[in-house]
Design goal:
The chain is α/β, with parallel strands linked by helices and 242 residues long. The protein has one domain: Undecaprenyl pyrophosphate synthetase, CATH 3.40.1180.10. It is built from 7 helices and 6 strands; from the N terminus they run βααβαβαβααββα. Strand 3, helix 4 and strand 4 form a beta-alpha-beta unit. The protein starts with 12 loop residues before the first strand and ends in a 12-residue tail after the last helix. The mean pLDDT is 96. Bound molecules: 3-methylbut-3-enyl trihydrogen diphosphate (2 copies) and magnesium ion (MG).
């Protein structure tokens, strides 16, 4: 439904909690990393499909601040996968007009991965067809704490009065500074929780949950989800209009 007809229209910014790689692999008796590898293939397809669906911003949750609790083997495997994805996809993403950014605390990541991340951010900085943001070592509470520390330092230095702290001042210290809030958050694998993903930014986002495991998620399913979103009425605290 187009926006004029009372629906939400196409979401400009879609955020995805890509969950279920481990279960997908376990169902087949394979190591969890095989599921993550297949998941990365899915990312490529979904990224490619977004611009034609009217999506201008895509944010994907790849590794949370809590995911360090997994086995060393899985963590190392995931970090290697991120590095390979950036290296292998750099040309393709640049050609397709994708601007790639990262959110999360980079200070705990391997130096080589960090360099790859900044490298592709610079290389794709002028692209405008799709804004792809990947959350690596991202946790919403951690992000808010880091932003709060920044503000506290400004206050302590006498550059900011406590009463000057408003939504904009706090948002300016988040990793997502300058990025629009997600209109729609999708979580795969049937879990009904947000797992510390964009708690500030998704305060008024719409949510969709699908039982599909991430390695089975397709552009066709995304299309169906977007069609349902288009018919929704977003109220942002206002009164019902239809
Ligand atoms: C999501 O899949 C990917 C990451 C969290 C890195 P999972 O690895 O969480 O898969 P399940 O939830 O165990 O099936
Ligand atoms: C959320 O999935 C993090 C990512 C998709 C990267 P998890 O699998 O880590 O979340 P929980 O532990 O089920 O809440
Ligand atoms: Mg999971």
């Amino acid at each position: 439904m187009p926006q004029g007809a009372g629906g939400a229209g196409a979401p400009r910014h879609v955020a995805i909690i890509m969950d279920g790689n481990g279960r997908w692999a376990r169902e087949r008796g394979w190591p969890r990393l095989v599921g993550h590898r297949r998941g990365a293939e899915r990312v490529k397809q979904v990224v490619r499909a977004c611009p034609d669906m009217g999506v201008e911003w895509l944010t994907i949750y790849a590794f949370s601040t809590e995911n360090w609790r997994r086995s060393r083997e899985e963590v190392v495997g995931l970090m290697g996968l991120f590095a390979r994805y950036i290296r292998k996809e750099a040309d393709e993403l640049s050609k397709e007009g994708v601007r790639m950014r990262f959110i999360g605390d980079r200070s705990q990541l391997d130096r080589r991965l960090r360099d790859l991340m900044t490298g592709i951010e610079h290389r794709t900085a002028a692209n405008t067809r799709l804004n792809l943001t990947v959350a690596i070592n991202y946790g919403g509470r951690d992000e808010i704490v880091r932003a709060a520390r920044r503000l506290a330092r400004e206050v302590a230095a006498g550059r900011l009065a406590p009463d000057e702290i408003d939504f904009a001042a706090l948002a300016a210290g988040l990793d997502t500074v300058g990025q629009p809030d997600p209109d729609l958050v999708i979580r795969t694998s049937g879990e009904l929780r947000s797992s510390n993903f964009l708690p500030w930014q998704a305060a008024y986002s719409e949510y969709e949950f699908t039982p599909t495991l991430w390695p089975d998620f397709s552009p066709e399913e995304l299309q169906q989800i977007l069609a349902r979103f288009a018919a929704r009425e977003r109220r942002f605290g206002g009164a019902k209009t239809r």
